[in-house]
Every structure is written in structure tokens, then in C-alpha cells.
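Researcher: We are triaging several targets before committing to wet-lab work. For this one, the compound of interest is 2-oxoglutaric acid. I'm pasting the protein sequence and the ligand SMILES. What I need is the predicted three-dimensional arrangement of the protein with the ligand bound, expressed as C-alpha cells, so it can go straight into our comparison scripts without reformatting.
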Amino acid sequence: MNLKDYNKNGFLIARQAMPVEHIRTLQSEVRRVFELQLEKTVSDKDIFELYERDFTTYMACTKACNNLFSLYALCTHPVIHELLRQIGYQIPSISAKPYLHFSSRHLAATHNFYWKTNPHQDWAAQRGSLDSVVVWFPVCPFGKDMGYLEVAPGSHKKGLRNHVETGPTFELDHCDEEFISVPMQMGDVLIFSSLLVHRSGNNTSEKIRFAANFRYDNVAEPTFVERQFPQPFCYVRTVPEIENGFPSVKLIEKVFKEDEHLVEMFE
Ligand SMILES: O=C(O)CCC(=O)C(=O)O
């Protein structure tokens, strides 16, 4: 990694740094989540159709995807740990739950956030360590028509700008930055300062553009320590509804049936 370039531009791309087979595991588990709900093999078109027909199930699937072990494994992957170490992190921490961005105009009926973000700095919402970063990478084959992420080189050095809330998200109230598009392939990893102004490119394709989005703080950054490690998100307990009488003892017995193979494995 060239730290001088990173400090100057506010971003770096580590080409072919993330093992593609780990990304493929996530890709196939995401598909599987939708297949378990829809009880069939699922294409992007089926996901668009689900979004239109049954938004609740669509959201349930995307939330399940965001809790996948394979997504968390990528978020704590040694490749990212090393990149963070190289930009000077002594103690990395995760400042927001990792998430997978499902981007398509066909998944954007309610708000275009589901499709693309307008110019913004993530620091405006996170307010973590001054050297906090976003790690972003494709979780499907990317082409130009899928809209690469766009960044404004050097914009991180101009400080925090004013943002306005727009629905579930926020954007710069005024933007005169020049953007460049960042072409990336599966396996490439983009790391950028949370103060860097960036926005989504246009996905004009008929495919869903899946991208992983991870955010990190450096616990040892002096102002982060002084501000007592601010956390942007809070965890709220909700109790999912269940039908009366669920789960029956019979069902539970089925879950905990004796399985010789399992017993052997753990003995
Ligand atoms: O994936 C994208 O297109 C946008 C991601 C982004 O801007 C963000 O999450 O801050």
C-alpha cells in the first residue's frame, strides 16, 4: 500500500487482495436465502419480482443476508486487518454492522437509496475516529454498466461538509466536487476515508449490483478516545411475533433428535 497516495487522495484500491472464493461463498449464500423463501432457484429477475409483490419478504431476505456468517467473515478478514494496519490502525473496531448493498433501479420504488446514494461523507453519520474508513468491494461480477463507485479525490482533506437528510439517508447540501469512477473487479478492495465525498454510479444493467460495505474505527485515535468512542448505531430488542402454541414440543423434539454423526463429531 502506498500510504502517501492514500493520505493525498483519501482512497486506495488493493487489486485482487480478497480471495474470490470467499466472496463466492457469500454470493451463493445470498442466493440461497432468497431460494429458501421462494422455494425455487432464484434469478435477479425473481428478486425484482419479489420486491414488487412482497416487500416484507424481500426486506426479511435482505436482512438475513446482512447477518450471514460469510459476510462477517469478510468483514474481519485478515486482508482487511492488514490494510487497516498499514494505514496506521493500532486497534481496529467495527463501527457499523457490515452490509450488502443491493443496487438496482428495479429495487427502488420507495426511495432511490435502494438504488444509489448521492454525494456524501460517511463521517457525517458515523462521527467515529478521524481516520475511520469504509471498505467497499463488489460481490458479483462488475461491468461498467453496473455503475462503479464514484469518489472525489482529495475531498477528505477539506473537512466535514453540511449534509441534509433525504429519507433514510443523507447527502451534501451543496456539491461542487469532481468525481472519478473507480472500476473494480471481484477480489479488488477499495478502502477510503469516511471523510471522502463519494456517491454511487448508475447501474443501468438489468442485474443487481451487490457490493459489500464495511466501516471501521481506530480505537486508539486520540480524539476518538477523548470523545469516548462514539457509536453511530444502537441495538434495539424487538420480539418477533409467533403463533399461539408455537413451537410445539413435538417440533422441538424433531430439532433435538439424536444424530449419531453429530455426536461422533463432537465427542
Ligand atoms: O454501494 C454504493 O453504491 C454506495 C455505497 C455508499 O455510498 C455508502 O454506503 O456510503
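Researcher: Any quick observations?
Model: The pocket of 2-oxoglutaric acid is lined by residues 101, 103, 116-117, 122, 149, 198, 200, 211, 213 (CB under 6 Å).
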